[in-house]
Amino acid sequence: MPVIAGTERAIVETVIALLEELRERERRPTRFLVFDKGKYCFVAAEAIDWIEAADNYVVLHTGTRKYLVRETMSNMEAKLEPHRFIRIRRSAIVNIDRVDTIESYSGTEYRVVLIDGTTLVSGRRFKENLRAMILRG
């Protein structure tokens, strides 16, 4: 096997990381099965405005509708596309496409206002997630 120079090694490592990211994206669901009014239906991931914790369940907020799903926040966070959804506190994940404004709330917290007017306050533990989102633009 040939020896790879530093620059070539960096390129190979970047390509491998991109391929891993693509494989991971393929494993992420694009929609979620929910039980609503006596029937099962699908909710597209991009239709979710935000998600809130409710004990061993999560509530998917989509416009004016809410869907209860038996899932923990950690498991739900792992299933979601990290470039589209970020966790802003222990009990809330937001779709960044639905964020209207982010305001400084205290030295360690932010007020996140969604397009529909929903206001959520970030947790101190997740401030870096919001800072990274702000830097990404």
How is the secondary structure organized here?
Elements: H1 6-27, E1 31-36, E2 39-44, E3 50-54, E4 57-62, E5 65-69, H2 73-79, E6 85-89, E7 92-95, E8 99-104, E9 110-114, E10 119-121, H3 127-136
By helix and strand content, what is the structural category? alpha+beta
What about the largest sheet? Answer: 5 strands, antiparallel
Q: Unreliable stretches, pLDDT < 50, 5 or more residues?
A: none
Helix content: 25-40%
Please count the helical segments.
Answer: 3
Task: Tag the structure with descriptive keywords.
single chain, 137 residues, alpha+beta, five-stranded antiparallel beta sheet, three-stranded antiparallel beta sheet, 3 helices, globular
Structure characterization notes:
The mean pLDDT is 87. A hairpin with a 2-residue loop joins strand 4 and strand 5. The longest helix has 22 residues, at 6-27. The protein has 3 helices and 10 strands, in the order αβββββαβββββα. By secondary structure, the protein is α+β, with helices and mostly antiparallel strands. It is globular, with a radius of gyration of 18 Å. Strands 5-4-3-7-6 form a 5-stranded antiparallel β-sheet. Strands 8-9-10 form a 3-stranded antiparallel β-sheet, with no helix packed on it. The protein has a two-stranded antiparallel ribbon with strand order 1-2.
What is the compact description of this entry?
The chain is α+β, with helices and mostly antiparallel strands and 137 residues long. It contains 3 helices and 10 strands.
